[in-house]
Structure to design on (217 residues):
């Protein structure tokens, strides 16, 4: 019996050794496969990255090529950027001058109506308790000066090319009279406002003012 048991034990040891050898052999076979797979995957990723960059470069060149072909040379442009900018500046300046002159015309028109429909009728009534000149200060002188300013502006712009319209000279020329006239008007402004408030509390004087306002409508 003992020799049989020894043979069985020896067989068991041999099976164990064989199993270990098979395991190690299998591990040796699989490890290179995993490494090569990983390496192949990395190289595949690298190849795809290089391919993407090449494709992107080609597309970029395709996009740039038509633009370069279709864009005309700078020398063939009808006018350069400086000329375009200059023309825009001239057009903007002409628009500002036109708006300035229109504003002055509207202001003069309003002063005309005020003098003809309010100041003159109140003066003609000769109301003892109504100080027309105190209420309206030097508004007629303001009207005259505004008309002079408009005349100078029209003279500076009529039949004159926009680049040659020297508007600044107009204001320098009339600067002194403008300051003198509006100093007086502004100096009496608060007194005139107080006077108007007192007249509106007097029903008779208020009615005269109401009549003038009605005539404006």
């Amino acid at each position: 019996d003992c020799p049989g048991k020894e043979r069985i034990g020896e067989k068991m040891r041999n099976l164990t050794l064989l199993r270990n050898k098979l395991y190690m052999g299998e591990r040796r076979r699989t490890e290179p496969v995993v490494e090569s797979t990983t390496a192949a995957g990395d190289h595949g990723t690298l190849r795809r990255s290089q391919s993407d960059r090449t494709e992107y470069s080609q597309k970029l060149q395709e996009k740039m090529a038509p633009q370069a072909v279709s864009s005309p040379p700078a020398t063939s442009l009808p006018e350069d950027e400086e000329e375009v900018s200059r023309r825009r500046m001239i057009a903007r300046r002409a628009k500002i001058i036109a708006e300035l002159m229109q504003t002055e015309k509207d202001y003069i028109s309003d002063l005309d109506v005020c003098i003809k429909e309010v100041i003159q009728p109140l003066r003609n009534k000769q109301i003892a308790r109504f100080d027309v000149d105190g209420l309206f200060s030097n508004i007629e002188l303001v009207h005259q000066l505004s008309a002079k300013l408009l005349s100078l502006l029209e003279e500076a712009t009529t039949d004159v090319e926009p680049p040659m319209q020297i508007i600044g000279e107009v204001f320098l020329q009339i600067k002194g009279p403008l300051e003198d006239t509006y100093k007086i008007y502004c100096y009496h402004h608060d007194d005139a406002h107080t006077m108007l408030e007192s007249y509106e509390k007097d029903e008779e004087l208020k009615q005269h003012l109401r009549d003038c306002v009605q005539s404006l409508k």
Q: What stands out?
A: Helices lie at 2-70, 81-125, 132-136, 139-157, 167-187, 189-201, 203-216.
